[in-house]
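Dear colleague,

Thank you for sharing your sequence with our group. We've completed the structure prediction you requested, and as agreed, I am returning the results in plain text so they can be pasted directly into your records. Please verify that the sequence below matches your submission; if there's any discrepancy, let me know and we will rerun it promptly.
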Amino acid sequence: MKTITCYLDFISPYAYLAFEALPQSLMGVSHCMVYKPVLFAAMLKHHGQLGPAEIAGKREWTYRQVLWQAKQLSVVLDMPLSHPFNPLALLRLAVACSSDGEPNRYVCDTLFKHVWQGGAAADDATRLLALTAQLAPARSVDDPAVKAQLKANTEEAIARGAFGVPTFCVDDKVFWGLDALPMMRAYLDGDQWFDTAWDAAASIQQGTKR
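Please find the predicted structure tokens below.
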């Protein structure tokens, strides 16, 4: 049985859609799923990049694409009142709901729906209080250990090769994004393509650098 580690940030609509698509994508595969909240902004900073919603043109395309993909997947997706927003409170709440920084699927589902269903402000203080009461975390979101665990999750993801969310790590393989789910399923099914093509693709020399 393979362990799949899913690194996610509730700020990402792609992470939400992938989360919703996971059960069907992995149907029939014996696996252990581990969810680890990470701070996407810290990943972007590490790699010297801007987020999709921070780039004119790409921002509009991102929202159009995820709304279309949600329609194709029959998933309810309503854009929050504003985006991007500061997701730290939500990430710390997720971490606080477990003793090891690995919230269960129910917690992640509740947090994703808080952001991506209803069209309200994801960081509204009143809503956050109600959400915290609903999830009843075992630890305080202000616990230094909770903050440290979120940081550790993010650093772990970067160390494993993650550069965005959602990222799925299986063995030494890193799969990024909603559209990587079929590829990950092929790996889990033992597709022999991975025996040669995976490493060969990484050996291509870089030409022009900017």
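Summary note from our side: The chain has a mean pLDDT of 97.

Kind regards,
the structure core
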